[in-house]
Structures are given as structure tokens and as C-alpha cells.
Sequence to fold (64 residues):
Amino acid sequence: MKAFVDKDVCIGCGLCADLCPEVFNIDDDGTASAIDTDIPEDAEDAAKEAAAQCPVEAIKIDED
Ligand code: F3S
Fold:
């Protein structure tokens, strides 16, 4: 499973990095990015929660 952040959509609210710091990080530009490797198994639920909670739906989860 992988996560992606659309930086054109992200408003930098920081919720994803709070909910799932193993996967999401706030970059110097103030928007989030996701690790480009597979999500660690123990962080999958938190990553999905972050995607569900993002106020602008900037996070996509690839279930493969
Ligand atoms: Fe951006 Fe959504 Fe995270 S707005 S900082 S991707 S919760």
C-alpha cells in the first residue's frame, strides 16, 4: 500500500502528519508529502484515516 499527496490541492493543515507521522511529512513549502516507499503495515490504518480526514481530499491511497 502506498500514499500520495497532491501538493496542488494540499492546504498544509498538517492533520495527516499528526495522525500518521510514519508516512506523512510537512515539507519546507508548507505542504505535505508521503514516503515514496510502501506504508509500514502498522501505519496502514492511520494512513487511511489521514486520507479520510484530510479536509481537501489531497491524499490518495493505492491499495496495491
Ligand atoms: Fe495537506 Fe490534507 Fe495533509 S491538507 S497537510 S494533505 S491533511
